[in-house]
Amino acid sequence: MKFFKLILSVTAGALLITGCTQQQARKPLSHSSGTFMKESVERNKKLIAGEEAEIEAVIKKDTAAQYIATAKGYWYKYDVKSTVTDTLTPKKGNVAYFDYEVKDLKGNIIYTELELRPQIYRVDKQNIMMGMRDGIKLMKKGEKLTFLFPSHMGYGYHGDNRRIGHNQPLMVTINLRDIKPEKDAKAAAKDTKTNVPLTTETPKTTETIKQ
After folding, report:
1. I want to staple 175 with a disulfide (CB 3.0 to 4.6 A). Which of 18, 63, 144, 189 is the partner?
2. Peptide bond before 28: cis, by omega within 30 degrees of 0?
3. d(Cα 103, Cα 112) in Å, to the nearest integer?
4. Per CATH, domain 60-208 is 3.10.50.40
5. Burial code of 84-105, b = ≥16 C-beta within 10 A, e = fewer?
């Protein structure tokens, strides 16, 4: 009888071990495998190449303008270039006052300048479109530039969940009206007794400078 119980115990243990081994063997393969990563990289390369081809077509068509390529992977041209010797450009600790409009690469308006006014942005302290965050720092007061952003410098795969679609390259024209140190911007807002709207991650303005 004891021998029979021993056999049952050994058999049950063996089944348990086998079951655990089989469970471990059924674990899904990691999606971070070399094959998956290579396929993802190839998809991104094709996407970027396609968008760059679209942007190049826009540049070739705009024969009157001279576009400048940046190391960040976007292009821009001057619509209005400053003639003053002042070299001040927006930097962290400044507030940039600007207007802008957003179009697709065919020139169709997505957001008008009028509906986006006013834009007041704490440089490098707020979440705005990556391309604009970098592009604004190239500008001087009074300048107007048109930027051609591939989607990875815009709103990427998800778009803005409103009018900008997924993986959509953008044509963005920015008019930099003024640059002020943040303390001066706060003082100006306090003197006028108004809440000054700031840019947010989407084109609409909802935040205010704290008094």
Report:
1. 144
2. no
3. 8
4. yes
5. eeeeebbeeebbbbbbbbbbbb
Q: Which of 17, 59, 60, 16 is nearest to 150 (CA)?
A: 59
Where are the domains positioned within the chain? 60-208
**Residue 169 burial (CB < 10 Å; 0-12/13-18/19+)?**
buried
Tens digits of residue pLDDT in 25-40 = 445 545 556 787 888 8
Provide the whole-model pTM. Answer: 0.76
CA separation for the pair 139, 100 (Å, rounded): 13
